[in-house]
Amino acid sequence: MMYLDHAATSPVRREALEAMWPYLTGDFGNPSSHHSLGESAAAGLAAARRSSAAVLGGRASGVVFTGSGTEAANLAVKGIALGAPRGRHLVTSPLEHEAVLASAEYLRRMHGFEVDYLTPDRTGRVSPAELAILVRPDTTLVSVQYANNEIGTVQPIRELAEVARAQQVPFHTDAVQAAGWLPLDVSALGVDALSLSGHKVGAPKGIGLLWAHGRLSLEPVVHGGGQERDRRSGTENVAGAVALATALAAAERERPAGSPRVTDLRERFVAGVLGSVPSARQTGHPQHRLPGTASFVFAGTHGEAVLLELERRGVWCSSGSACAAGSDQASHVLTGLGLPEPLARTAVRFTFGRDSTERDAELAAAAVQEAVEAVRGLQRTS
To answer: Are the CB atoms for 74 and 64 separated by under 8 Å?
Structure first.
């Protein structure tokens, strides 16, 4: 089988498993305990915090370990918005991950926030000029995803963050999909907060982090024992944090050579699909996109049917966000680009990883042609 669903999750790295193993065995202590076993766990947690911060180019004190990227985004959006005394207004885009969109809706419904949404173009990019119009004196937060999880479009984060900074508005970016593929230096990006997920870079599932600038006041989403400097209560997942830090550092080391290589694979694959499947239409920006992400709609088919045919041919991929798996609704990302719902339901997403090969790209393109033709044949006979 050929795995082309790395945006959903990535294989766990051996070095991450080896790094976390001691904290699942001998150094199993609670990092809040004041004895040698607890202190050993606390030391591992502190080292993971420093290592993660080094990749992000920020202070270690800004790292908050969470249970997932979703929780990290919730803490960023709710925590910054509710912790700011400035007002009850935030700006985001309609193409964000549901973690951001649902958090914004919660703030609107339960706390009386007003939410303005940037208008994406047909490739999914949003405009700094429009952001400058939407930001108000009472804006508490701008949150725009670094790279989209379905179509792979990369946003002009630095330019967007500059607009927010000029108005002294905190800027958060969901960088879950960008990690390992794009630069994450928070100073260079100009962001005030950045959220990540461990299992996208080779750590196990169940660990994420939020980096937040020290000047931000964060209202906790999870209350209780005051861990993580009172920003996220609950006994820390030390082993998970160590694995995340290890995987993140490894992904960053590989990025300078890996991103261009995987971009070439993606382009080879895209050319093969567009050249052999007349109904194929690539979604997202053709250049400003994640190295490994290729997404299409296939008019006259159904995405789930194409997925089944692809799996029969040894290709594992996705019809969109894995977080929305099982939903009959058309992707909010694709409809947000202006695609009609029937066409949006034909979407298929392929995401290459660090171990993908040229052979994978060639075989997958051939499999797509066969799968689409098979679905069309079934529809003609039904």
So the answer is: no
What stretches of 135-224 adopt beta strand conformation (E)? 139-143, 171-174, 193-197, 208-212
pLDDT for 116-151, tens place per residue? 999 999 999 999 999 999 999 999 999 999 999 999
Could you give phi then psi for residue 177, rounded to 5 degrees?
-80, -25
| Domain ranges for the chain | 14-251, 255-381
Each residue's pLDDT tens digit, 48-81: 999 999 999 999 999 999 999 999 999 999 999 9
Phi, psi angles (nearest 5°) of residue 195: -115, 145
| List 43, 166, 257, 323, catalytic entry | 323
CA atoms within 13 A on the CB side of 44: 29
To the question of domain 255-381 being in CATH 3.40.50.720, the answer is no
Neighbour count for residue 82 (Cβ, 10 Å): 18
Tell me if domain 14-251 and domain 255-381 are identical in fold.
no
Residue 35: CB atoms within 10 A of its CB come to 9
> Cβ neighbours of residue 242 under 8 Å, at least 6 residues apart?
19, 20, 23, 44, 45, 47, 48
| Calpha distance 152→144 (Å, rounded) | 14
323 is catalytic: yes
- Block residue for tokens 């001691």: 22
CA 117 – CA 119 distance, rounded (Å): 6
Q: Using the 8-state DSSP alphabet, how is residue 324 labeled?
A: G
Give the architecture (CATH level 2) of 14-251: 3-Layer(aba) Sandwich (3.40)
Q: What is the mean pLDDT of residues 209-213?
A: 98
23, containing H or E segment: helix 14-24
Distance (Å) of CA 295 to CA 84, 132, 247, 286: 38, 30, 26, 10
